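Protocol step 4 of 5: obtain the predicted structure for the target chain.
Materials: sequence only (see below). No template structures provided, no constraints applied. The aim of this step is simply to have a reference model before the mutagenesis design in step 5. Sequence pasted as it appears in the construct record:
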Amino acid sequence: MFTSTNGRAPRLNTRPRLRRITAALAVAVAGVLAWAAAIPAASAAIIPVPGPDGAYGPAPAAQGGTVQVITAGGMPGWQIILIAIAAALAAATAAVLLDRARASHRTASTTR
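Step 4 output (structure tokens):
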């Protein structure tokens, strides 16, 4: 009843397709952000370790010697790489979508 007479499948408008892709990307980004927010909270738990006498609590003060505190800061390399990859994928996706949207608006008379 609703078949096309020219033999080609009906083509979707680019706006609904762009909205669907944008919605899918928004869901993916929200999931990654939720995961990134949950990971530090999950790994910040204090795990009690029993002392030599089997009791839990603060360790007894050590006698003599000095304690050297080593601090490290900055972002791990894998996080930097992950951010760079995500930015490159987002830029490539946006470039392809914008190019396709621009190409779909061209008419036959302007593409000489």
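Step 4 remarks: DSSP finds two helices and no strands in the chain. Helices lie at 14-43, 77-105.
Proceed to step 5.
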